[in-house]
Amino acid sequence: MASARDKGAPRVPARRRKSAEARGSVRDSERASAKRTLTGTIRQFPAYLKLLGGLLTDGRVSRVDKLMVLGAIVYIVTPIDLIPDFIPFVGQVDDVYLLVLSLTRLISNAGLPVLSAHWAGDISDLTPGRLRSVLLAASLFLPRRIRRRLRRGR
């Protein structure tokens, strides 16, 4: 019986195989960590929607930012998305991505004190570093084309 090597298949050195396997396990652990981060954020959707709703009525938030907040709320609560919400987990990732982009803009424009006045959770969830980590986690699950579409409004 002929082996794969006899059929002209390239021989991959053991060192390269181990390196590729190590990269695969690093990617798997990155994705697992990212999934935990996103799952925590998804569980807080009601608190985030309450925050966005409060910002709509706050006089310290500009009209342009209020329109962006309203757009984010509509996108999150409507079932028609770039990735349909009926797909478990991944269906909510685009919502998280847009939510965090909106919050990042609001923090830079209105300031963290304005957001914290409407936030019922831990204020550390709204820090720029935390929001960046959620964006990074979401980007591991979103196709590049969808990330670009969601960033256009940024």
Tags for this entry?
154 residues, mainly alpha, 7 helices, 67% helix, 0% strand, globular
| Averaged pLDDT | 79
Quick one: overall form? Answer: globular
The domain tally reads 1
Number of strands: 0
Contiguous low-pLDDT stretches (5 residues minimum) are none
The rounded Rg comes to 21 Å
Name the helicity range. Answer: 55-70%
Bin the strand percentage. Answer: under 5%
Q: What characterizes the major β-sheet?
A: none
Order of helices and strands: HHHHHHH
- The structure class reads mainly alpha
Distance from N terminus to C terminus (CA atoms, Å) equals: 60 Å
The total count of helices amounts to 7
Summarize the structure.
Helix 3 packs antiparallel against helix 4. The chain has 154 residues and is mainly alpha-helical.
Kindly describe this structure:
With 154 residues, the chain is an all-alpha fold. The protein has one domain. Helix content is 67%, strand content 0%. The protein has seven helices and no strands. It has helices spanning 14-43, 45-57, 63-77, 90-109, 112-116, 128-139, 144-151. α2 (45-57) packs antiparallel against α3 (63-77). It is globular. It starts with 13 loop residues before the first helix and ends with a helix. The mean pLDDT is 79.
Layout of secondary structure:
Blueprint: H1 14-43, H2 45-57, H3 63-77, H4 90-109, H5 112-116, H6 128-139, H7 144-151
